[in-house]
Amino acid sequence: MLPKIPKANLHENIYTIPNILTASRLVAAPFIGYCILHDYHAMTLGLFAYAGITDALDGWIARRWNLKTVVGTVIDPMADKTLMTVLTVALAVKGALPVWLAVIILGRDVGLAISAIYYRWISLPPPKTFSRYWDFSLPSAEVRPTLISKYNTALQLGLMGMTTLAPVIPSVDMSSALGIMQYVVATTTIWSGASYIYSKDAVKILTPPPPPNGGEEKASGDKKEDNPR
User: Fold this and answer.
1) Residues 192, 149 contacting (CB under 8 angstroms)
2) pTM for this one?
3) What is the mean pLDDT of each run of 10 residues along the chain (229 residues)?
4) Contacts of 147 (CB under 8 A, 6+ apart)
5) Could you tell me the domains of the chain?
6) Residue 181 to residue 173: CA distance in whole angstroms
7) Where is the composition biased (Basic and acidic residues) (predicted)?
């Protein structure tokens, strides 16, 4: 008798503290946009600071207590990009951010979002159903940010932080510094978008290969040959 091989557990625990902190950033993003559009500058700065603190904290907790999850590698950049999208749109609407820079930032993020949807679908273990597609406890592909992408995220957040800080301290002229940062962010945004296209390590498919066909039938046939009538 051949030993029965247990099926691999493809699910993971997604209800970890780092993932909860990341999810809270997702929830905070629309409130930040609302505060920007209604000129609640102090509240905008406070929520933005909360997002920055939790962004650093969830990564540290995940590394310190080994709470890394595959879904965390997906929703963490998703939370960053959601926050960046809300900030970009809201600040551009208010005239605090140039429209040309908003187009560059949003265009890159739309391209990455389409790529993420594509890789999630092709790497999803069968059966490929709508409900399984949105079951993030079922990992299928892992996103690995490139080095320039990490720098770009930090620079974008720095620019957004300076832009939200400027109305809180109107006595300080930050126009020159903001102008320089805008061109720097435009450059790194285009560079980081290209890095995902040309880097072979940016996305790792986690779907295990299917078992070889005929293994069970062969074992059954061998058993019959060992026990002739």
Assistant:
1) yes
2) 0.72
3) 46 85 94 97 95 92 87 83 93 96 93 76 75 69 78 92 94 94 96 81 59 50 50
4) 195
5) 17-208 (1.20.120)
6) 14
7) 215-229
